[in-house]
Amino acid sequence: MALSRKIAYIDLTNRRVRTAPIPLEMRKLYLGGRGLDMYLLYNHVKPGADPLGPDNVALVSAGLLTGTLATASARTHVAGKSPLTGFVGSANMGGFFGPELRMAGFDHLVITGKADGPVYLWIHDGEIEIRDASHLWGRDAHQTQTMVRQELGDDDIQVMTIGVAGENLVRFACVMTSLKNAAGRTGMGALWGSKNLKAIAARGRMDIKLAFPEEALEYNKEIITQVTSAKVSKTMQKLGTLFIWGTTNSTGLVRVRNFQSNQIPYADDIEPESIEEEMIGTAGCFGCQVHCRGRYFIKKGPYTGAYVEGPEYTSLGAFGAEVGCTTKQTVLVGNHLVNMYGLDTLETGSMIAWAMELFEKGILTEKDTDGLDLRFGNDEAVIEAVHQIAQRRGIGDILAEGPLKAAEKIGKDAIKYLIHVKGMSNLHSDERPTPALALNIATASRGSDHLRSRPAIDLYHLPEKVLRKIYGNPVPYDGPLTSDYRDYEGKPWEVIWQEMCYEAVDCLGICKYHTVFLGPNMPNFSEWPRLIQLNTGLELTSKDIWDCADRAYTLERLFNLREGLTREMDWLPDRYFDEKTDRGLPVVRGKSIDREEFKKMIDEYYKLHEWDEKGRPTKKKLEALGLQDEPTHKL
Amino acid sequence: MSKILVINPEKCTGCRLCEQVCSVKHERVVNFYRARIRVVKWEMEGKILPVVCQQCEDAPCMAACPAHAIARNPETGALEVNYDLCIGCRTCMNVCPFGAMGFDWVTNRVIKCDLCGGDPQCARFCETGAILYVDKAELSGIKQRKGAESLMDLMTKVTTAISAAG
Amino acid sequence: MSKKTEESAAKKVVKGRTSGQFRCLNCFERLTPPPGAKTFTCPNCGYAWRIYWFNPGEPRIRGPVWDVNEAQTQKSMAENKGGK
């Protein structure tokens, strides 16, 4: 069965490996992937541990359905205590690593300690070797993958790796696989770097047995049709995730020049349709018929001839709107660089945009930047700043510390201009006109983030009836729900539902574009029980899956509380309340978030979660989920 | 009328769904390396090519088989291995110019595409059109049209360039 | 497992899909532009959109016709229709 895969405990300090089965009861409580990782995080990381010290734990996992006949079951989850925020570190990526890891016999890796020199792990058919990586240290993410494949003599090996940014402990370095798949957020690359862990290579020939192969095959076809017949999927097949720009920038929901406007007009060159002209096609992650990854060659400048995949929507902000640049060349090159260096594109762009506003305000001067002209819209300076961050040179060395630590180093009023929550930068989205999305970033367990709980379909003006159908399953909800994205009412439940939905797909190992994220009629709690049953034989109801997600999300909350999270941190930067949007459609223009209304939203959100007024899960809630005795150290 | 698998590498997104459904169809498990089709990639260069049996008219595997174990299925047109006759010498693997003859180390026998008895799952699941299952009679037409399209593109570019040059 | 009902759920969703239309981002009206149109003005609210056809017969908004929409918005803000 798919459920026979093991967990491996890898102690890098003593170079010891121990493996163990994963009990079925733990599957029924946490499914796999992010869910079990959160259990492991809460149980294996001591309170107050230094995120870059040997006491932190690097977790890697495949989801419950990764590699099975569940459409787009490509996902790999990476976790640990975040070097960026000090809270939950958790990031998810596509590609082909997760399925290969499963074929190699493992679902979960718990990597502890610190190696005395650079190492990489070689995982194949139930075996794990710790190998020397001195020759890989200093190599970019692409070179490393090629070198590992050559060294082990097998082109089918899948490799996860950090780039130079991770080695240099850039606090928002990511873990990469293939050309552009990144476990991007919360600085997991820095965590690996601190352990001297350069890469993990996997290759397996072990069967993934399915419970009902024939039925699973047919149901997979049905689900694929459900996904690919949606307009969002068809658009993504052509434009990739960039397509979102059409709605967000046209409406006025984009973060421009750090946070100084909410729309960038006449920027035709960075519109997805213009970037698509550079594309030679798109690529898909394992088993996916949406294939949203762009493929292109760089045609100008020092990287001419490089084959690149991407860019994603986030890079459109990082090297476009946020930094005030409007040429696609900058987006295409910036995307290439973050992939090679192994940097979180979103955090990188946000840090540069913030530095640019500080430069504009005179808080940073050319003296601080060694002459680097950090004016908004300076394409060359943006690209140079990426190099400096990854290599920790000049001002880049400060920016590499992430929002809060960099603000502390720069001092003055620098912190006022940060667009972050819990020490993690926001996407290039402006949530001032959209309270639901604002609540999402304020409360997300890994800091300001759109992939934890964003009710993106709130922007679609869906009829209440449709919203009730989606948000009323599997847990009944009879509170308010409205089609108007400017409303404060009813939105907390949307955020909670999305939290559970995204947690569930991260536990299952399915991509978010295959659930209710950008399309309302995508598979979700109604479809998953059957997918799970046909592929694994596990009989779970929609509500069981919801409870697994709730259990994992509650553990994330408990972890954060243990690390010092307070209610005040579930909040937005002051600028969301004090500055009004200056552009966009009439419905979004002149908008800011109302403090009182937002406070009420937080209260309602806590109440619906059964958390107390300080945001702590109540005893009753913990008991209902069976979490009252955690940590229980069962794994 | 017999049909055949046509591969359009430029449409392949490299997702390997074909490998997955092939292994499930034939072996009832997910195992890319036991599939009859293989998506070969030069990942860092962005090159992808799905490899599968071409069901050759004058098939080297059939000609070379010392046990005469490979024969064409008259209904589907697929070349199939008769495992009662196969002696497991793997000569067919050596002579196949496409590397489309595989070896399953679990069952210890050679494996190849049998067109799933007339409903090839790889083509059924491939929505990009990288793998098509088409009537042989339509084959020339499809290829001619594709050739003509790229020629027309080129001619349009040339004409535009000439008229632009005045 | 209630296999039958869930099977039809996935299929029903597919049947309910529409194409050839997009929603006006200002008034959310469903619009059907003529095939191949490069721009289209919403007959309901007067906002003009640049259209991209991601498939033959399937349009989406590429972006606003900036001047037209900005003028519309200025007018609307002056009349104080935008606020809530």
Oligomeric organization of the protein chains: heterotrimer
CATH secondary-structure class of chain B = Alpha Beta
Structural class, judged by helices and strands of chain C? alpha+beta
Shape of chain B from CA axes?
elongated
Helix content range of the residues of chain C, please?
A: 25-40%
Helical segment count of chain C: 2
The H/E string of chain B reads EHEEEHEEHEEHEH
What would you call the shape of chain C? elongated
Distance between the amino and carboxyl termini of chain B = 52 Å
Number of strands of chain B: 9
Radius of gyration of chain C: 18 Å
Total strands of chain C: the figure is 5
Provide a brief overview of the structure.
The complex is a heterotrimer of chains A (635), B (166) and C (84). Chain A has 24 helices and 18 strands. Chain A is an alpha+beta fold and 635 residues long.
Topology summary:
The complex is a heterotrimer of chains A (about 625), B (about 170) and C (about 80).
Chain A: E1 6-11, E2 16-21, H1 24-30, H2 33-44, E3 58-62, E4 76-81, E5 88-93, H3 97-103, E6 106-112, E7 119-124, E8 127-132, H4 141-152, E9 158-162, H5 164-167, E10 175-177, E11 181-183, H6 188-194, E12 197-203, E13 208-209, H7 213-228, H8 231-239, H9 245-251, H10 272-276, E14 279-283, E15 293-297, E16 307-309, H11 313-321, H12 328-341, H13 345-360, H14 379-391, H15 394-399, H16 403-410, E17 420-421, E18 424-425, H17 435-443, H18 464-471, H19 491-508, H20 528-536, H21 542-562, H22 575-578, H23 595-609, H24 619-625
Parallel strand pairs in A: 1-6, 7-12
Antiparallel strand pairs in A: 1-2, 3-4, 3-6, 4-5, 7-8, 9-10, 9-12, 10-11, 14-15, 15-16, 17-18
Chain B: E1 3-7, H1 17-27, E2 29-30, E3 38-42, E4 47-51, H2 60-64, E5 70-72, E6 79-81, H3 91-95, E7 102-104, E8 109-111, H4 121-125, E9 131-135, H5 136-165
Antiparallel strand pairs in B: 1-9, 3-4, 5-6, 7-8
Chain C: H1 3-15, E1 22-23, E2 30-31, E3 39-41, E4 48-55, E5 58-64, H2 66-78
Antiparallel strand pairs in C: 1-2, 3-4, 4-5
